[in-house]
Amino acid sequence: MKLHAHEAAARALRNDTLGSLPEAVEVPRYDRSALTPGIVHIGVGNFHRAHQAWYLHKLMQQGLAQDWAIIGAGVRPGDAMMREKLLAQDCLTTLIELDPDGTSVEVIGSMIGFVEVHPHNQPLIAALTDPRIRIVSLTVTEGGYYQTATGALDTDHPDIQHDIVHPDRPVTAFGAMIAAYAARRAAGHPAFTGQCCDNLQENGAVLRRTILSLAERIDPDLAAWIEQNASFPNAMVDCIVPATGPAELSFVQQLGIADAAPVTHENYRKWVIEDAFCAGRPPWEDAGVVITDDVHTHESMKIRVLNAGHQVLANAGEILGLETIADCMADPQISAFFNKVETDGILPHVDPVPGVTTQDYLALIEKRFANPLIRDTTRRVAFDGSSRHPGFLLPILREAIAAGQSIDGLALVEALWARMCAGTRETGDVIAPNDPMWTELQTVAHAARTDPQAWLLQGHIYGDLGQDDRFAASFARWLDMLWAKGVRATLATYLSG
């Protein structure tokens, strides 16, 4: 249903107020008191609630999956704040679909509880040990899987070291999952499925590798049991979901709903899942999820065109002070830069999926990025470049180098990232820290101003790519030009080439 913001007395969002919300707001039609849990989700951010939780809600609206309700969970202090907000409103969430043709609003109720957030995760382990829980899903960001540049488990990371030495009081989600697998094995309960919902190539395989590598160092026999009994399906997830700020909180109030944690999202969703669930699953396909053995082609297209494309825009936008991705797309030069990098540097390394050509998909992404109602900030999209560039862009760059194909656009994207990490816009405004490694990145970015190779020698990011002469030369040319002539002149040179 379509709803336009208006001045209205806002109703507190709770189970007992659902019937008094504005008539145009779609609310749960199922009996939430009769739901029982089947999923624990770790990392209850906006994306999860606009995506997985929405798909489950859609099933529940059809009278399905009543025994698959979600219990929220988290392992970071910020998760405790989300827990407090959601429990105060019976774990209900207002989803606001932002479309130029009108605003659609619904309240979803597929989450029914939230585990206490504890430094050593005992409440989480207990929740995961409950035999009713058959899926443990995660959105812990692309950089949250403790991977080295080669994709192996970073056993030198202090969190991983802690969980190896103290497996009974882990600090990571993966340590908690392993402790729960151990408790389930001891109690005679079956293993649960680990379901990654993060934007990673072969995300299920990444989760599986993280779990098994850590478990092997804690208890090799347990690792063997997990490998034999658990499953980790690959999946592709897609929906643009901006962060919630004062504007979103004000907007939902104007709609007549007092929601402390509303979510805005675009008019597009997709979820493609490998059917590999060791303990059953909801009938996802009845909610529009694509179940297939070929997740890789779908995820490769999405990650390379959309996620890598986000990085093409975000760093240039940050340096120029463009606030949102839609602002970047409305800028003729930036949008032309985006299209050229995608067409010349990315699409040659993307396979089409059935019924969709790569050019058609690029046109869809350009339309989605240009939606002016989606206030997706360049800052949010540029966040954690030290994970997103290796995850989204560098695999394409490797393939282009190996094939002897164009790398100029991709090298310019990397140079823009290095320039952005110097921490100032061209106006002189300071760019606030925007990466878990920001201090280190900023130091190297300043060194690279006179020695571009310093940036490429970050082995944990570039591996051996920094030793490639063609890439190093192109990167150095662009970075020197960015500092000498600025972003606009540099983009003009690239576009004229």
From TrEMBL:
Keyword field: Oxidoreductase
Residue ranges occupied by any Mannitol dehydrogenase C-terminal domain in the UniProt entry: 294-482
Source superkingdom: Bacteria
Entry EC number(s): 1.1.1.67
Mannitol dehydrogenase N-terminal domain segment(s): 38-285
Gene Ontology MF terms in the entry: mannitol 2-dehydrogenase activity
Pfam families: Mannitol_dh, Mannitol_dh_C
Name used for this protein in its record: Mannitol 2-dehydrogenase
Species for this entry: Rubricella aquisinus
